[in-house]
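[[Local backbone shapes]]
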Amino acid sequence: MSSISSLLQQLESFVKAGNIDQSKQSLNNLKVALLHGGTSDESAYALELGVLISVMEGDLQAFARNMAQLQPLYKSGVSTPRKALVTGLNLMHLLVDNRLAEFHAQLELLTDLEASDPLTSFPIALERKLMVGIYDEVGQIPDPSYQLFMDHLLQTVRDSIADCLEVAYQELPLGDAANLLKFGSKQELLDYVAAEREDWIMEPDKITFAPPPAAHAASDIPSMEWIHQSLTYATEMERII
């Protein structure tokens, strides 16, 4: 049987090459080997690479599984060169899922030095911007692996804007709707509506929204200020990514 060290090296090479299939197979082999021995550090290295593989594949469920196995190792004192990166990615994941209580619980586990690392300070700063509606100083993502979560954040904001539009307007020209939802073309808008908003009535030059349920109070309808803040955020997300 190959040594754990050689399996880790093999897995590292597959991940660096961006070979998802070989990476996943290599990770499975490594996890089996770790069941029969291996140090906590080696287990952490393997799980961190598993986190990166799940990001490469866009598999957030696999991401969560690897993080769930990795967190106890971090809490036990294991520290690796990738810890800041993986911690930052986990914070981004929690932010995308709007799991803010867990987000802040994770922050409590960080030392001041860890929290100041650019890989972890980016999601911390992003969360603060989200809370106060200021998005113009977020900066560039610190690592390409953050792109997956930035894409998800933009989609989340787009869905929120769409929710606002359908209760704030009775109808809207297609061009205006595309601009408000930050699409580059009307076709992108049409694709989004077909996939996500089947109840919107599409006409040649406009969208007609179904009226909100009668139970909605006026206070339930999002304010134009809120819509403006969401649009500002969406614009900033596009600038960042």
In short: The CA atoms of residues 5 and 215 lie 63 Å apart. The mean pLDDT is 86. DSSP finds twelve helices and three strands in the chain. The longest strand covers residues 171-173.
